C-alpha cells in the first residue's frame, strides 16, 4: 500500500483528504471553532482557583456569542438560525479545547436551551430564546435527583397546580428528591429547567399525577442570591471539569406562574384540567425525553473529540521521544517504532476514525429530524435515532475514556504532569461515561429495543415486565436480513456466505462477521427469555441471568453499525491513496475488535483457530503498515496547534 | 457453600478469619498504621492548596516518627530496628489512607533511606541513618532524568573524581541529563541520593567511566535555598499526588567530598584508583539496582492497598444505594443485586485477594533477604526475587488502577465528586503503573529472565543482542516440570494430565491451565527467536515482531505465580467456612482470568468450546455465590472506618 498507491499523494495532501472525511458536512463550523480555540486560548488549566476557573468560563462563553454558534440550535422563527447540526458540531469541537467550556456551553445552549426550544411553545420561545442565546438568561437543566440518576421516571420533585392562584408549587418532598450534580446550579444559573411530577385536578377530579413534566423556574435573583424557597448548594470539587459549577437545588413550596410549564406535550388549563396530545403517560414521557436527544448526541461527539485530542497528543509525543537507543547505533528509535507502543495507540486511532464518521451520521440525522416540522416526524424513525444516539454515545464515550487513559500511560511520567494536559483531560473525560445516560444503562436500552423491534410501548415496563413482554411477543427475533445501506448489501452479496471462506480484508467478510455475531446474540437472548417464561421461571432471576448477555447484544450492535457507516463513508472517498489508507484503518479497526472478542468468536465457531491466529498477526502487521502514516492520521483530526503545544511535545 | 459449611461461622467471625489471611505476618504493624490513619486523619484532601498540602505532608511524616515505623527499615547496628517487612508493610498500609503521604514516606525512608542503607557503608550509616529516620535529614532519590526514564544505565549525569582536591564534581552535561519527577526535589529535600556516571582515573590511567554509582549530595541549605551550582525547579501540578513535591534538579559542577560516594559496591581511593568487589560493570550495576528492590515491592503493595480501598468503597456504596425499584414491590434492589454490578466489582475483589497474599509473600522474602548478611545471599535467589518483585509490581499496580477506575464508574456521579474520594484515588493511583519501573518494561523484564533462565550476564545486552543470546544459548526452554511448592505439586499430581478431563473447580486443574499457558508461550517465544536467528533474519525486526509475545509471557507468568501462592495460602487456612469462601474467591479469580483470555485458550486448544461456555457461566454463578459474602469480603480488607466515611456511603 505504501508504494504505488500512495506515491502521487504527499503527506500533506493525504492529511487534507483524510481531514475532509472526518470533518464532514459542518467543516466550516469546525474550522471556525478551531480558530476560536486558538484565538481565545481555550485549553484546560490547572493553575486557576475554582472561582477563577468559573469566572473564565463565563467570559469564554460570552466571547462565543458573537460567533453565532449559540444561535444555531434555535429555530429561525424563535430568534435563532436553525442549524442544529452546526450547533452540535460547534460544541463537539470545543472537545479539542477545554471540556469544562464544552460542558458549560452544552448545558446553557444545548440542555437548558433545548428544553425551552423543544418542550416549550411560542410564549416560552418569545420569552427565553433570545436571552438564552446571548446569556441574559443563564440556565441549568435540573433533571437528576440525588436518589434518581438513571431512572428519570421515578423523580420525586413535585409540581402541584393550585387553581386558586393559577400557580404551580414546586417542592422537594424528600432528601432523595434534591436535584443533584446540576451544571450551573452551584453559581451561575439564574433559571432552571426543572423536571418534576405534575399533579393537578380538573374540576370535579381527584388530584392526580400526570407524570414528569418540565418547568422553567427562576432560582436566583440578578445578584445571584437564592430566591425564597430555593436552596442551592455546591457539589464541590470533582474528578475533573473544574470550570463547571455543579450544584444541588432543594425546592420548598416555590410558586411559579402556570405559564412556566413547558407545555408542548402536556398542558394545564386555568381550572386545572390536564390535556396532552399524547394519550399514554409513558409515551408522553419518552417523547419529551426524546426531544432532548441532542444532549446525548453532543456528549458523544465531544467525547470523541477529546479522545482524538488525547491520541494526537500521545502519537505526537511518541514521534519525538527517543528511548533505549541501541548502544552502537546512531539511529535511535522513537517510541512509536516499538510494536508494543504501536499496539497501544494505533488500534485506538483506527477506532477513533470509525466512531468519528459514525458520530457525523448521527449528527446529520438529528439535524434532519429537528430541522423539520416535529409533528410530521415518523415516530418509528425518531425512536430508531434515539437508540442509535444511545449506542454511539455509549461507544464513543467509552472509547474516549480508554483512549485518554492509554495516552496518559503511553506518555509515562510526562503524561502525568498537568503541563502536558493529558492528566487534566483524563480527569475531565472520566464522567462522560456516566452523564447523559450511564453507559451500562444505555447498552441495555439498545439491546432491549432490538429485542422488542423498537416497540414503543414497552418503555413503561420494569425489568420483569419487560422479560415477560419479550417472551410473550417475540417469536423469531433476528437481525433484518437486508442491510439498510445499499453499499453494505452489495458487499455482503459479494462475499461468501461462510465468512471463514472469504478474505478477512474484504469488507463484506468483515460486515458479515459483525452482523452474524449480533444476530446470534440477539436470537439466543430472545430464546433464553422465552425458555425462561415457558418454564414459569422467576422473571427477576431471568433478568439477572441474562443481563450480561443483553449488554453484549448492545455492544455487538454498536460495533456493527459503526462498521457499516465507516464502510459506507470509505466507499465515497474518491482519492485512491486516501481510500487505501482508510481501508487499512478499517482493517485495523475490525481486526482489533475481533481480537478483543476472540473468545466469543471461537466459542461460537464464527472464527476458526487458524483465522484467529491470522487475526492476531494481522493486528501486528496492520500496526506496521500504518506506522508511516501515523502522523498524517492524527494531523487529519485537525486538533488546533494550541491544544498540542505542550512541553513534552515541544522538547521531546 | 452458604449452607452447612458456613453455618457455624458468623459474618463477623468470617471477616476476622479472612482478615487474618490477608494481614499475614505483619498484622500488628497493619493495625498500628490503621489506628494511626484514624488518629491523624490520614485521608486525601481536595480543599488544600498545594503549599498547604505539602506542609501537611511534613507534619504527618513527623507524626509518624515516634511510632517507630521509620526506623524499621534500617539495621539495628545502624540505628534502626531491622524489621524490613514491618517497614514495607507500614508504608503499604498508608495506601488505605493518603497515597501522597505513602509516596512521601516511601521516598524518604524507603528510597533515599534505602540507598544510604544498602549502597552505603559504615560512615554513611553513622552520618545519615539517624537523621533520615527522624527527618533531620530530608532526602530525595535522584535517579530518573528527563531523557532517561526506564533506561537507567544510560543516565547522563556525571560524577568526575578530582584527585587534586579529593572531590567529585557532579554535573548535568545536557538538557536531557536533568533529574526529573524527583519526589521531594521541588521543596522539602535537603539531600539527594544522586545516580551518576562515575568517571575517575587511577595514577597513570586514562580517565574512564565506571558506570552508574550513587552519591549523597546536599542540594539545599537549612532555609531551603538551592546550594551553589544546584538549580531545582518544580514539576508543578500533576494528575494526582498533590502532596508530593516532585521537582527537577540541574547540577553545574557541584563539588562533594569523596566520602559521599555510597561505596559499598564501588569505591575510589584518594589517588583516583577505582575498586569494586564486583568485576563486571553490568553485574555491578544490576547488583546496585537490585538492593533498591524494596521501593518496587513497596509501590506494588501500596497500590494493592489503594485498589482494595477503592473496591471496598464501591462495594459499600453498592450495598446501600437503591436503584430502579420494581414499581409494585417493596423490596427495592440495591446496586449489588444486579448481575452486571456484581460482574464489575466481584472479580476484581477476587483478584485483590489473590494479589494481596502474593504480595505478602514477596514482602516476606524481601525481609528474609535483607535481614541476613548480604554477602551471604545466593545471587540466584536474589535475581529470582527481583523478577518476582517486578512481576507482582506490574500486576498489582495494573489491578489497582483498573479497580479504582471501575469503582469510580460503578458509583456513577457520586463517584466523580471529590467528597467521596474515589476521584482523588483515581488521580493518585494512575502513575503507579509508570513509576518504580514502567509496567510495560517490567513485563518484558520478567519474560526475558524466564527465557534466559535468569542468566545474570545478559543484562548488558540491548534488544538485538538479547535476541541473539536467547537464540544461541537456549535449546529447549520450558517451565520447570516440578512446582516449587509441595502443595502445588501435590495438586498437580492429583489432577488429570489433560485439564479438559478434570473438574474446573479443582485447584490442580486451575494450576495446570495456567502453567500450560505459560509453558506454551515460553516455548513458542524461544522457538520464534531461534527460527529467526537461524534464518539470519534482522534481529531488530525479530524483536519488534515478538515484543507482544514477550509481554504475554510476562502476564502469564504473573498470573500463574499469583495463583500458586494463593492456593498455597488457602491450603493453610484451618477454619472450614473461611477456607470454603476463599476457594470460591479463588475460583472466581481463575474463571475471570480464563474468561479474559478465552481467545488464547481456545485458539491454542487448551480449553474446549464446551468448557469455554462453562467458564462464562461460571463467572456469573460465582458472582451470585459470593454476593452474600460481599460485605464480609471487603470488611476483611481492614480499611479504617475513617477512609470509608464519605457522604455517598453515609447517605446512600
TrEMBL record, chains A, B:
<feature type="domain" description="Acyl-CoA oxidase C-alpha1">
    <location>
        <begin position="290"/>
        <end position="451"/>
    </location>
</feature>
<keyword id="KW-0285">Flavoprotein</keyword>
<keyword id="KW-0443">Lipid metabolism</keyword>
<keyword id="KW-0560">Oxidoreductase</keyword>
<dbReference type="InterPro" id="IPR046373">
    <property type="entry name" value="Acyl-CoA_Oxase/DH_mid-dom_sf"/>
</dbReference>
<dbReference type="GO" id="GO:0005504">
    <property type="term" value="F:fatty acid binding"/>
</dbReference>
<dbReference type="InterPro" id="IPR006091">
    <property type="entry name" value="Acyl-CoA_Oxase/DH_mid-dom"/>
</dbReference>
<feature type="domain" description="Acyl-CoA oxidase/dehydrogenase middle">
    <location>
        <begin position="140"/>
        <end position="254"/>
    </location>
</feature>
<dbReference type="Pfam" id="PF02770">
    <property type="entry name" value="Acyl-CoA_dh_M"/>
</dbReference>
<dbReference type="GO" id="GO:0003997">
    <property type="term" value="F:acyl-CoA oxidase activity"/>
</dbReference>
<feature type="domain" description="Acyl-CoA oxidase C-terminal">
    <location>
        <begin position="509"/>
        <end position="645"/>
    </location>
</feature>
<dbReference type="Pfam" id="PF22924">
    <property type="entry name" value="ACOX_C_alpha1"/>
</dbReference>
<keyword id="KW-0274">FAD</keyword>
<dbReference type="GO" id="GO:0071949">
    <property type="term" value="F:FAD binding"/>
</dbReference>
<dbReference type="InterPro" id="IPR002655">
    <property type="entry name" value="Acyl-CoA_oxidase_C"/>
</dbReference>
<protein>
    <recommendedName>
        <fullName>acyl-CoA oxidase</fullName>
        <ecNumber>1.3.3.6</ecNumber>
    </recommendedName>
</protein>
<dbReference type="Pfam" id="PF01756">
    <property type="entry name" value="ACOX"/>
</dbReference>
<dbReference type="InterPro" id="IPR012258">
    <property type="entry name" value="Acyl-CoA_oxidase"/>
</dbReference>
<dbReference type="InterPro" id="IPR036250">
    <property type="entry name" value="AcylCo_DH-like_C"/>
</dbReference>
<comment type="similarity">
    <text>Belongs to the acyl-CoA oxidase family.</text>
</comment>
<keyword id="KW-0576">Peroxisome</keyword>
<keyword id="KW-0276">Fatty acid metabolism</keyword>
<dbReference type="GO" id="GO:0055088">
    <property type="term" value="P:lipid homeostasis"/>
</dbReference>
<dbReference type="InterPro" id="IPR055060">
    <property type="entry name" value="ACOX_C_alpha1"/>
</dbReference>
<dbReference type="InterPro" id="IPR009100">
    <property type="entry name" value="AcylCoA_DH/oxidase_NM_dom_sf"/>
</dbReference>
<dbReference type="GO" id="GO:0033540">
    <property type="term" value="P:fatty acid beta-oxidation using acyl-CoA oxidase"/>
</dbReference>
